[in-house]
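Operator note (shift B, R.M.): manual run for GNAT family N-acetyltransferase requested after the automated queue skipped it. Running by hand, logging everything below so the morning shift can see what happened. Input copied straight from the record, untouched. If output looks odd, do not overwrite the archive copy; leave it for review.
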Amino acid sequence: MNNQNIVIRVATPADALYAKTITDEMEASAKARGTGIAKRTPEYVAQKMDEGKAVIALTPEGEWVGFCYIETWEGEYVANSGLIVAPEHRKSGVAKAIKQRVFQLSREKYPEAKIFGLTTGLAVMKINSDLGYEPVTYSELTQDEKFWAGCKSCVNYDILMSKERKNCLCTAMLYDPKDHYEPQETKQHFEQKSQVYERFLKLKQSKFLKRLKGSEKGKGDDRTGNRKLKMLLFNLLH
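Run finished. Output pasted below as returned.
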C-alpha cells in the first residue's frame, strides 16, 4: 500500500533495525504531549515485527515514517497500540493509513476478537471512529492484569490507580465484530459530536492533572468535575 509514495506494510524481522528509532520517538512524543503511553523497549517492538503483529511505514529509500503494533489479551481482546509517526510526516494522512492497515491485519488474524484502544488524542479518536470504533467505559475493556501492568510506565499511572482503573486521561474506544455500527455511522456520530469529544478530553486532562499535582480546591469541585465528565460521556455514548 502507498500513501504519497510511502509504503505501508506488515513489518518483518528485517525491520528490527528501526526498533530503537521507533521507541525513541514514542518516548519523545509522550513527553512533548505531557501525557504518556506505556513505554516500550526496542526488543519488544522487534518481537512484534518478528511475530508479524506490526505495521510499518517507510519511504521508497528506506527512511522510517511510522509504526503500530498488535497486542492480544485473554484471547478475546486485541489492541492496536503504539501508533507513532515521524514528526516530519505528521498531518499527511499517514497515521490514518497505518491505523487502517493494522486494523485490517487485526481482523485477519483475530476475526472474532474485540478491538480496543486507549488514547488522549482527538485525531486518533477520529481515525478510530472512521474505522467503526465506539467510545466505551473502561469496564468494557479487558480486565487482564498484564494489560493494566503495561500502564505502569505511563506518567498517568497514579491517576489510573486512584480511579480504581475505571477512568484516566485516556478515552477508551472499542470495535466489537459481533455488535457494532457500520464505519459510516460511527464516522457520522463523531462528526456530530466532535465538539463534545473535544470538551470531554480537555475536562479530563484539566481535572486529572490538577489532582495529580495536588491542586484540587476541594471535594465540591471534585464532585462537579465528576458530574460533568459523566454527562459528557453519556452524550458520547448516545
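Quick read of the result: Confidence is low (pLDDT under 50) at residues 215-220. The helical segments are 19-33, 42-50, 94-109, 122-131, 145-149, 157-162, 183-213, 219-237.
Leaving this for review. - R.M.
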